[in-house]
Design goal:
The chain contains 4 helices and 5 strands; from the N terminus they run H-E-H-H-E-H-E-E-E. By secondary structure, it is mainly alpha-helical. It has 2 domains: 65 residues; 77 residues, Dna Ligase, domain 1 (2-Layer Sandwich), CATH 3.30.1490. Strand 4 and strand 5 form a beta hairpin. The longest helix is centred in the first third of the chain and has 64 residues. The protein is rod-shaped and about 110 Å long.
């Protein structure tokens, strides 16, 4: 009897050891499986994120360098005034609010690139008639004065070149008449 009991105890210990080993094996398999599943989810999210980022970068780049317009022709005419001391960003923000450009940041970068290029054209103060069907290039052409076909009204005290005439001597430089030659 004592040996039977000992045999039963050994058998029970063996069963417990086998159960522990089976449990450890199952947990190991579950751990590997979960690791694979989480890796697949993580890398899928990374790929989706990179794809979305590329899409946003492409769209923004197209807005800066492409032919973007808010509406197709004929569009809506909008009177737009550029103040004397307005920055390109302020103008771009107001253009976006007036629904003349798609994105103020892309227009701002376009304006900066236009101003910094060879023979850079800066936005000039004045009153302009713009249209929602105009491209960024057409809007920049009007605002920089390089489009002579469009009507432009210059603000008082500001010349067509966009410089302030207030307080300057009219026709005199350094006390000499500009037409006088020695």
């Amino acid at each position: 009897m004592a040996q039977d009991k000992k045999a039963e105890d050994n058998k029970a210990k063996d069963n417990k050891a086998k159960e522990k080993k089976a449990t450890r094996t199952m947990l190991g398999i579950a751990k590997v499986f979960m690791g694979i599943v989480l890796s697949v989810i993580f890398y899928t999210l990374v790929i989706i994120g990179i794809t979305k980022l590329c899409d946003v970068v492409y769209d923004f780049s197209y807005q800066v360098f492409g032919e973007v317009r808010v509406q197709e022709a004929p569009g809506v005419d909008v009177d737009f005034v550029v103040g004397e001391n307005e920055s390109n960003m302020q103008v771009a923000t107001r253009l976006e609010r007036a629904k003349l450009v798609v994105n103020r940041y892309s227009f701002y970068i376009r304006a900066q690139l236009t101003a910094s290029g060879k023979g850079g054209e800066h936005i000039k103060p004045g009153s302009y008639e713009l249209n929602t069907s105009m491209t960024y290039a057409e809007i920049m052409s009007v605002l920089t004065g390089s489009d002579k076909d469009k009507e432009e009204t210059v603000l008082p005290g500001v010349s067509a070149a966009g410089t302030n005439n207030a307080g300057k001597d009219s026709g005199k430089e350094s006390g000499k008449d500009s037409g006088e030659q020695k």
